[in-house]
Amino acid sequence: QAVVTQEPSLTVSPGGTVTLTCGSSAGAVTSGHSPFWFQQKAGQAPRTLVYDTSNKHSWTPARFSGSLLGGKAALTLSGAQSEDEADYYCLVSYNGIGVFGGGTRLTVL
Amino acid sequence: QVQVVQPGAEMRKPGSSVNVSCKASGGTFSSFAISWVRQAPGQGLEWMGRIIPILGVTNYAQKFQGRVTMTADRSTSTAYMELTTLKSDDTAVYYCARDRGGRPFGYWGQGTLVTVSS
Known about the structure:
By secondary structure, chain A is mostly beta strands. Chain A is 0% helix and 53% strand. In chain A, strands 2, 4, 5, 6, 9, 10 and 11 form a seven-stranded mixed β-sheet that branches. Chain B has strands at 3-5, 9-12, 18-25, 34-39, 45-52, 57-60, 68-73, 78-83, 92-100, 103-108, 112-116.
């Protein structure tokens, strides 16, 4: 089974921009892996921000965007706000089997 | 309005089984797949599997093969995830999530804390 890797932690200044990445031990992450991004705040259930690389739900703030970058899936936050402080997880699918990354703890400071 | 409701907590002894329910109201239940994810205390998310009720098709993570069974009761719009031969490291919050727009993880339940302890 592939191992999916994320930065353990990142810090961004309020109003700043940060990119979280999601790589795979099995090679480049492509649109065919249907990468997802989730946000989880302390004590809450996860919330889906991005699906299939770059698609957003109606509740996804416009400041979040998903893409592919250098063989990895990426989640970019432009104009960080204090409420964006949370854990972020990516999910990559391999023939219908999902694998989560270890998560990135994002601090807005 | 879609709601995904799970029980708050379950307690089990090592070696026993747990059957976690997930009631998804709103829309045609059997048309949507249900995914299951767990999160051990202080740890990350772990994908367990998925069921498509209308097809009766399941996909399970290799780690849980032989120990997990996902089912769905279309008459009550409820999905179930049974995990057998429980160990202490199965202690976790178990989440279910329903599709939205044909894609997974559209609507999440609040999670069920399963505690395995003697």
